[in-house]
Design goal:
binds pyridoxal-5'-phosphate, Aspartate Aminotransferase, domain 1, 12 helices
């Protein structure tokens, strides 16, 4: 059985967490002269540092306990804190599978952690022959696996092998899970003490502007995230926005279904264009598409005010296209058809 305690940096284990005014007195009734706030106004009070209302709502929906939930200022905070909790700068390493989300690399560099990058195979799956022997590298304390993966769009298979074989924390980044048929790993947080599941309000929940990310894990692990985070990392406005988004679950589901229908339509339409060389399978709300000349296509789309993500440097001649609203997808296809006609 994996010993999670061995994976926590000593300074984090020994850290005395900041105790805020809102920690010391947790009631809601009274005259508050404890936090040096301005007594006037509507946004004048510090927010709940423990985000209790939002965690209670999430716990009910996801069938976990509130103490198995950490809320971050976007999942980007979950990624950064993961490095800070588990990896000793200049000494420990993290592992990921490329091409994938760029923040793992940036966050590793900021924290002075070596990120070992193992290329996914031609099907964008983990190359186990290369990856499994790395379990003997004791410096690898943290693994990031993104599924569905950004920018390739596919679900990653057999992630449990990482949880079973590595003496490391495994962060499964499920930013796009709501668009996928694959089951979430949330149900396995009790079974695997080294599992952290990262989700976000930024994609399917439609709250990218609010910056609310989520980590699910055993209460032991989650307690370290809570200890390390800045006390008021989620503003009152953003806690409220996320709570409202959860209450609008039905609306979110309608939007997800619309996006998935639009994706299927886009895949068919893109398939008719000679400048399109390959459309990769997608379990997310975007499609990775290989073109004759990704740079030229990208630039010509920009000229038509259609902005896509040029991933040419990551996957040969590929552009990542977010599935938009029906009129936006129509505009994309119109621009691509024009471009196709001028190039042939
Ligand atoms: C968009 C995205 C996120 C979301 O990050 P936030 O900070 O929550 O907005 C996380 N992981 C991946 C792989 C993403 O593509």
């Amino acid at each position: 059985m994996i010993n999670i305690n061995q994976l926590i940096r000593n300074n984090i284990k020994n850290l005395q967490a900041y105790s805020s005014a809102r920690d010391e007195f947790t009631g809601t009734e009274g005259i508050f002269l404890d936090a040096n706030e301005n007594p006037f106004g509507t946004l004048n009070r510090y927010p709940d540092p423990h985000q209790k209302a939002l965690k209670a709502a999430l716990a009910a929906i996801k069938n976990v306990q509130p103490n198995e939930i950490f809320l971050g200022n976007g999942s980007d905070e979950v990624i950064d804190l993961s490095f800070r909790i588990f990896c000793e700068p200049g000494k420990d390493k993290a592992l990921t599978f490329t091409p994938t989300y760029g923040m793992y690399d940036v966050s590793a560099a900021i924290n002075n952690i070596e990120l070992v990058k193992i290329p996914l195979n031609a099907a964008f799956q983990i190359n186990w022959d290369v990856v499994l022997p790395l379990k003997d590298d004791a410096a690898i304390k943290l693994i990031f696996v993104c599924s569905p993966n950004n920018p390739t769009g596919n679900n990653i298979n057999n992630i449990e092998k990482l949880l079973q074989h590595f003496n490391a924390m495994v962060v499964v980044d499920e930013a796009y899970i709501d668009f996928s048929d694959a089951p979430s790993f949330i149900n396995l947080i009790q079974q695997y003490p080294n599992l952290i599941v990262s989700q976000t309000f930024s994609k399917a929940r439609g709250l990218a502007a609010a910056r609310v990310g989520i980590a699910y894990g055993s209460s032991d692990i989650i307690s370290y995230y809570n200890k390390v985070k800045p006390p008021y990392n989620i503003s009152a406005l953003n806690q409220e926005a996320a709570l409202v988004a959860l209450q609008n679950n039905q609306q979110t589901n309608v939007e997800i279904q619309t996006i998935l229908n639009e994706k299927e339509k886009l895949i068919v339409a893109l398939g008719t264009l000679p400048i399109v060389k390959k459309i990769y399978p997608s379990a997310a709300n975007f499609i990775l598409v290989a073109f004759d000349d990704a740079n030229a296509t990208y630039e010509k789309l920009v000229a038509q005010q259609v902005i896509t993500r040029n991933r040419k440097s990551v996957v040969n001649n590929c552009i990542r296209i977010t599935v938009g609203a029906p009129n936006e997808n129509d505009a994309l296809m119109k621009a691509l058809q024009q471009l196709n006609n001028t190039q042939n």
